[in-house]
Specification:
Layout: H1 2-30, H2 46-53, H3 55-88, H4 91-102, H5 109-120, H6 125-131, H7 144-168, H8 172-180, H9 185-214, H10 217-222, H11 230-239, H12 244-276
Length: 277
């Protein structure tokens, strides 16, 4: 037992240095006043009040939440049918298709987003293709469409994998029992498959919504700096404005929003699991 504990010390030290200490610094900066000094320790809520009383920042926060919700809904609507079809196939086809879905994630997300810039720009691949049919050029880059498309492309594999895992673990005897009792495929799906796969859907929603609401380089590249989300505001406060106090306060507000979202998704997940029993 002592040997096992000693093996955990490096991980505890790594977590403390890489996670706990930066989080404590963010909290410290958020609750201290900003000024010419490097850091002052006078307690203040000015940084939070500045954010919640400024209509511009609130509009950015609202836009970020809306974009994250739209991205999540699209990922569910696209990801569930894909995961369902894959789960119905044989083991070999299942493995190959899951591999094809996960392969793009092996490439750095920044590189994949840059690739979409070349596809969506006015003289890009997509507009060139549309030109063959006498359409275009269509303005796609630096729009909300481009931002949402980039987020869906980057985050949908997480949704598909979570739902597929839930469907793959589904007890096939339950489906056979429903068929024996006279249920057709639609009723079997609505009353058996869908309810039992909800934990996977909830996990997928968590893995998509959380990075989408805080993403900063996707809107920066595909939005061209004209479509600002809260992640871009945080980045600019730390790297451009140098106002670490205000940037930390915004980070804490986003952390609270994310934790509240995780709490409700866990409650829903627990209710779904309770429904199985």
């Amino acid at each position: 037992m002592k040997q096992f504990r000693s093996m955990t010390y490096p991980y505890v030290a790594w977590i403390a240095v890489m996670i706990v200490v930066p989080m404590l610094l963010i909290v410290l900066y958020a609750f201290t006043e900003s000024g010419n000094e490097v850091l002052t320790f006078r307690f203040t809520l000015e940084n939070f009040a500045r954010f919640v009383t400024d209509s511009v920042f609130l509009a950015v926060l609202w836009r970020s939440l809306v974009i994250a919700v739209i991205t999540t809904v699209i990922c569910v609507l696209l990801g569930y049918p894909i995961a369902y079809v894959i789960a119905q196939l044989g083991e070999r086809a299942n493995t190959i298709l899951i591999l094809l879905i996960t392969m793009p994630t092996w490439v750095n997300m920044l590189v994949r987003t840059y690739a979409w810039m070349g596809i969506l720009q006015d003289e890009g691949v997509l507009n060139t293709f549309l030109g063959f049919f006498g359409v275009g050029p269509v303005k796609m880059i630096h729009t909300s469409f481009a931002v949402i498309l980039g987020m869906v492309y980057n985050f949908i594999p997480f949704m598909i994998l979570q739902i597929h895992t839930s469907l793959d673990k589904l007890d096939k005897n339950l489906l056979n029992a429903a068929a024996d009792l006279g249920a057709d495929r639609l009723h079997t799906f609505l009353r058996v498959t869908l309810p039992l796969s909800l934990p996977g859907v909830i996990s997928g929603i968590t893995l998509v919504f959380l990075p989408a609401v805080s993403s900063f380089f996707i809107p920066k590249l595909l939005g061209g700096g004209q479509y600002v989300l809260v992640g871009n505001v945080i980045e600019s406060q730390f790297l451009t404005s140098g106002d670490w106090n205000f940037g930390s306060a915004i980070s804490m507000i986003m952390a609270i929003i994310i934790m509240v979202s995780m709490y409700f998704t866990r409650r829903i997940d627990a209710a779904a699991n309770a429904g199985k029993e």
